[in-house]
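User: Can you fold this complex?
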Amino acid sequence: MTRLTRRTFAQLTASAVALAVSPRIVRAEDDWRIGFRTAPETFDAELTRLEGRLPSELSGSFYRIGPAQFERGGERLGHWFDGDGMIQRFAIADGRVTHRGRFVDTPKRRAEKAAGRFLYTGYGFAPKNLTGIRAPDDLNAANTNVLPIAGEVWALWEGGSPYRIDAETLATLGRKAFDGGLNGVAFSAHPKTEPSGDTWNFGVIGKRCVLWHLAPDGTTRKAKLIELPEASLMHDFAITARHIVLLAPPLLRREGPASTLVDSYAWQPGKPLTALVLDKNTLEIVRRHELPARFLYHIGNAWEDADGAIRLDACLDADATFAVKTARDLALGLAQAPLSARPSLITLPPSGAGVIATLQGVGEFPRIDPRRVGERHRITHGVTEGGVATWDWERGVSETYLHPPGTWSEEPVFVPRKGAMGERDGWLIQTALDMRAGRTQLCIFDARRTTDGPIARLTCPYALPLGFHGTFVAA
Amino acid sequence: MKPHGLILFALAAAGLALAASPRAEADPTVKITVAGVAAPQGFMMVALHDEKGWSGAPLVRARVPVAANTVTLTLAAPTPGRYGVKLFHDVNGDGKMETNLMGFPAEPVGFSNDAPIRLGPPSFADAAFNVGPAGAAQTINLK
Ligand SMILES: [Fe+2]
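Assistant: Here's the predicted assembly.
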């Protein structure tokens, strides 16, 4: 272990003792429900400037995606993760930003539109009139993440195929049909594109896990089906230079009838958070580590350290309340809950269990410099309650900026400055819902000075539904 | 590694028809209409099961060329009773139901009563229908 890393651990462990107090930004008078309203079929507008100015070097498309259909035929959607996906594009050029939003045109959306009611159960919602399905793609909501690949943007979901989207118009080009036996196989919403341009992914249904290795043109280099030791609900994964890391929380498949996917899993706090380390070449499990029981959605990044350990950062929660309760309450408009996940650094030594060190404060939606995927990173950016945070894993500190009260902030995406190599030499782009004005803002930060707040803040003339993930494609 | 679990979807599993002799005057014939053919090619692979053999070998099978968007056929039930039908559209005509790496069907499937499929075949209870001495009729929509 390097001196630097040892110091990191001392600090992180010390900071973990401090009680994290997160500010409650959402007040009673702030209507967070406007973030969970059905969007119109299309959005098209130019943003107006509220403060600061856009950096002239920043030019490209910022894509985001999230659920945008929250009711049909008088029935309210029962879980945030099950809404039809709408893809957003903020086109940034010459100091101007134009926004466009389009629903992903899936068979699920077509069928439900034609029927005038919800038909399918997905992650956590079972409508009153349930229709059967043949394969997972029948209920693909294409609502979770966006992957720029092969000149297109793929709209991703967790249990089925990507949907191919035109990068300019956002028109749906069709379902990505992989060759042979890979057609319709789960392609998770968190693929990792490494510096070589190759993309890795996983996909899980029960104990069946498919590992994907794609070429930059979107074709499959390799894919393999493995059987996991346990059926755990996994949302994200990580790669290093040589390994794949799966973090399986103890939200495990249970026996007995269940009306939705998430209800067929049960939180088992007596069981560990299990890290499975796979060899990228053989796609076989080579190591297994047991960590204290934690739930997670998102991993920032992983790397191979000089001491033989794999290190990765993730936002770890005490349990799966968000999946089984909060995400339902949000969609139903019943209640919102403060963020509870904690940015954490996990060490997986070559042998042995593993260690979790947690930073102060809460956070989610961790994102790193895209050029460092699978390599050692020092900095992760993420959302904190009502703001944006930058986590420094070497210094063991968190820097945060809080938006004005009444703001619900979303995932920040780091955009490197052209020609610069520094890990913080670039911008953070973040959307934020101003609940008081009922408008979605686009905020640009200098990533070297997160705490200074945005260097430019623009606003759409409307509120967008709150979304999940985004990506920036430079012009 | 072999996909498992949904292998039950493999409707083309080998199995001899165990047809018993029908009673003299009874004609327990099942008239089946299959609707929703997307590509009029290949064969409709149809199987009649009783409760005991729902997850196993069929009692009667049929393989009918598909040349239109609707296919009609008949299956002779061995005796009046309760039965279920499983079928798939063998689009490429290779005699097998295509599945992907995870075991999900890659060719259209259908079940009697249009019994709902929830990432696996429906239960016999959902797919079962009565075949009387004068037979029965079922319209099945491909999924
Ligand atoms: Fe995610």
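Chain A has one domain: 6-54+92-101+169-474. Residues 1-26 of chain A have pLDDT under 50 and may be disordered.
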